[in-house]
Amino acid sequence: MSKFKTMKKIIASLFLIPAFLLVFPFQTVKAEETKAISEPACDIEKSLNNFLSIRDDNKLEKEEKEKEEFSARKNLLGEIISCSIKETTNAKNELQNLKNLDEKSLSAKDFLTSKLDYFLSFLKEKDNEFKASLDDKEKIKSIAEELLNWRQNEYSNNLKNATNFTLSFKQDDIIKTTDARWQKISSSIKSLFSLKNKEVATLLQKTSDGIKEAKDLKEKAYNNLISSIEEQKKKEEEEKTKKEENINKIVTSENKSPSLSEPAKEDFSSLSTSTTSSTLAISKELIKNPGDDLKESLNKIKDVYQNFFKISNIVKKILGF
Question: Which intervals carry biased composition (Basic and acidic residues) (predicted)?
Answer without folding.
Answer: 232-247
